[in-house]
C-alpha cells in the first residue's frame, strides 16, 4: 500500500477496503479483530430515546440501518391509540412478540388475540392492524426497511 493511500485513510479522506485490512493488521502486528474492535462500549450499548404519538410510545433498540437491514423496536400501545381499526398494507414481512398485555391483531377479516409470551409473524401485504386489547400492551418488533417506513414515521422525540 502506498504512503499516500495510507495517509488518505488516516485522515478520513478515503475509506478502507476489505482487502486492505489484512495487510494493515500484519504491518501493525495485530489481528484483524483487534484492528476493527472499538476501544469503548459505545458501539455495544444502545440508549434508546422515547418517541411518542398519541396512544403509542416507541423505543428503537437497534442502530439506524442496522445489521441485515432490520430495525428492532419496543412499542407500548394503549387502547386510546387513534385509527386502530384502519387496516394497513405495505411491502414486507412483520414479526412481533408480546412482552405484556394482549394484542388485537387484525389480518384481513380475521381478529387474533396474541397474549404475553406469544409471537406473531405475517406478510404485510395482508391488510393488518395492531392494537391494544382492553389495556396497554408492550411488544418487541422487528421491521424490515418497508415496515420501518410504514410504522416508524418521524415523530416528536421526548428524551425521557
Order of helices and strands: HHHEEEEEEEEEHE
Instruction: Give the strand order of the largest sheet, numbering strands 1, 2, ... along the chain.
Output: 7-4-9-3-2-1-10
Q: CATH homologous superfamily of the largest domain?
A: Jelly Rolls
Q: What portion of the residues fall into strands of 2 or more residues?
A: 25-35%
Q: Give a quick account of the main beta sheet: strands, pairing sense, barrel closure.
A: 7 strands, antiparallel
Count the domains: 2
Would you state the CATH class of the largest domain?
Mainly Beta
Rg, alpha carbons = 21 Å
Give the name of the CATH architecture of the largest domain: Sandwich
The share of residues in helices is 10-25%
- Total helix count? 4
Structural class label: alpha+beta
Q: Ends: how far apart?
A: 48 Å
Counting DSSP E segments of at least 2 residues, the number of strands comes to: 10
> What number is the mean pLDDT?
82
Question: Can you tell me about this structure?
Answer:
- With 160 residues, the chain is an alpha+beta fold.
- It has two domains: 3-36, no CATH class; 50-158, Jelly Rolls (Sandwich), CATH 2.60.120.10.
- The chain has helices at 3-10, 18-27, 32-36, 145-151; strands spanning 50-53, 56-60, 71-77, 93-100, 102-107, 110-115, 119-123, 128-132, 137-143, 157-158.
- The chain has a seven-stranded antiparallel beta sheet.
- Strand 5 and strand 6 form a beta hairpin.
- The longest helix has 10 residues, at 18-27.
- The N and C termini lie far apart (48 Å).
- Mean pLDDT is 82; it is low at 155-160.
